[in-house]
Amino acid sequence: MTTETTGAQISEKTPQRTGFFRGLSGKLLLLTVTFVMLAEVLIFVPSVANMRIRWLEDRLNTAAAAGVVVDGLQDVQLSRPVQEETLMATGTKAIVLRRKDESRLIAAEDMPPEVDAQYDVAAITPLVAIRDAFDTLLFGGDKVVRIYGPVGDSNAIIEVVMEDASLRKAMLIYSRNVFFLSIVISLFTATLIFLAINRLMIVPIRRMTTNMQDFSVDPADPARVLEPAPGRDELSVAGQHLAAMQQQLQKTLKQQKNLADLGLAVSKINHDMRNILASAQLISDRLADVDDPIVKRFAPTLLRTIDRAVGYTTEVLSYGRTTEPAPHRRFVKLRPLVGDVAEMLAIDPNAGIDFHIQIPDDLQVDADSEQLFRVVHNICRNAVQALMNDTGEATRMISVSAMRTGSVVSISVDDTGPGMPPKARENLFAAFRGSARSGGTGLGLAIARELVLAHGGTIALVEKPTPGTLFRIELPDRPVPLDAFRSKARP
User: Fold this and answer.
1) Helix, strand and coil in the chain, % to nearest 5
2) Which residues fall within 8 angstroms of residue 369, CB to CB, at 6 or more apart?
3) Which distant-in-sequence residues (6+ apart) come within 8 Å of 38 by Cβ?
4) How far is Cα 14 from Cα 215, in angstroms, rounded to an integer?
């Protein structure tokens, strides 16, 4: 799949920009207004209760002022017109001034109405005040209430009887004013918060979102990489990481394209090489019939080498369609296989490189012999090349050892070369990046790791105190099916 096709598919799935109230900006504005209104409601509940108490206290104070004046006139009874004017001025039905030993009716209607509820303004708790306030708001307006409280700091008690219609009207006006004021405050606050957060957050997020949409259309275009804004806040850091990820993705896409081109070229080359090797195979078959001791000595090795080369070219041709083929595992003796690796390496006797095989003759490993051969051969070939490039005078030696522990076979390939450089260690099993020598591709270790993992095993670079490189491969046996175990266990 090409980069252009990938970008086209991504762009088709990219959602279109939504409306204002469906985006973050609109949601932020609505949430801010909602939360401010909720806060205003929480403030309104105690404030309307407090407003009711203050209103009642004002009425009591007005009635107390009139009561104190009249009480100063001993044995004087107000005339009916004066009482009516006093009641109308105070908005009450009756006014009573009580002292410790006496009570005096200041003014009252001819037929005082029946009282529905009574309140002591000096003994109202906050919860009771809130309850009474909402009771008046929701169910008041046609009730007669009795209200009493102290007159200043004296021992006198002023008591009035009144209708709660005027109280409810005042509370409704107060609630309306608070409501409209809350709307104005919430909108003003929401606007300020919206402008601030939109400038600090929404605009950078929208910029990154737009860049990601543009980048998905053509990820290979360097001009589409985000230019991160300077800063150390979270959005700036996110933008910097996004730009780094886009640059890394472009490098990866470029490597994938190069690998695809390389794979196509290798497939073409191997197609022709397989035909050439087929001809060489026919000629090598005839060499086996030549009655010459030297030819008979090298002919089997040559035949096995050509057979493996033909197999490798076939696998390379199929690699473009699939991964490495699944291993065809069976128990094979490990020592002869490593011996074939030593013959394939064809180490020059004058190179001064010793190849030691320290494997028991009866040690068997459950593996695909051809794939295990490739694993050991790739590692040993790297070791030989490292020793050939080493100009030191130390002993040059490659040692392959193995041992079985339970159902796991451990294979060690040790050399006395210069060791792995730090750069090669960082990308040890990465193709085209894990090479330890100049001009290398790093494919050997990458192929070895893939084949070992296909066997369910592990391969790792082991640290050792002496110079050189030590690779350890651990291959477990396949689990034995229960039916197969029972069939073998039957007499």
Assistant:
1) 60, 15, 25
2) 330, 332, 337
3) none
4) 11
Listed residue (49, 55, 56, 47) closest to 120, CA to CA: 56
CA-closest candidate to residue 118, choices 83, 162, 82? 162
Q: CA 407 to CA 427: how far, in whole Å? A: 31
Closest CA to 462 of 392, 386, 389, 379: 379
- Residue range 323-489 forms a domain whose CATH class is alpha beta
Q: What are phi and psi of 447, to 5 degrees?
A: -65, -40
Residue-wise pLDDT for 86-96, tens only, equals 788 888 888 88
Task: Give the whole-angstrom CA distance, residue 406 versus residue 348.
Answer: 38
- Characterize the bridge pairing of strands 157-163 and 94-98: antiparallel
Q: Any idea which residue has 């933008």 for tokens?
A: 239
pTM for the whole structure: 0.44
Q: Are 10 and 217 in contact (CB under 8 A)?
A: yes
Angle in degrees, CA 401, 424, 432, rounded to 5: 105
Q: In the chain, count H helices and then E strands.
A: 13, 12
Rg of the Cα trace of the chain? Answer: 48
**155 Cβ contact partners less than 8 Å away, ≥ 6 residues apart:** 99, 100
Any idea where the domains of the chain sit in the sequence? 21-187, 225-312, 323-489
Strand partners, 95: 107, 160
What's the pLDDT tens digit per position in 235-261? 788 888 888 888 888 888 887 777 777
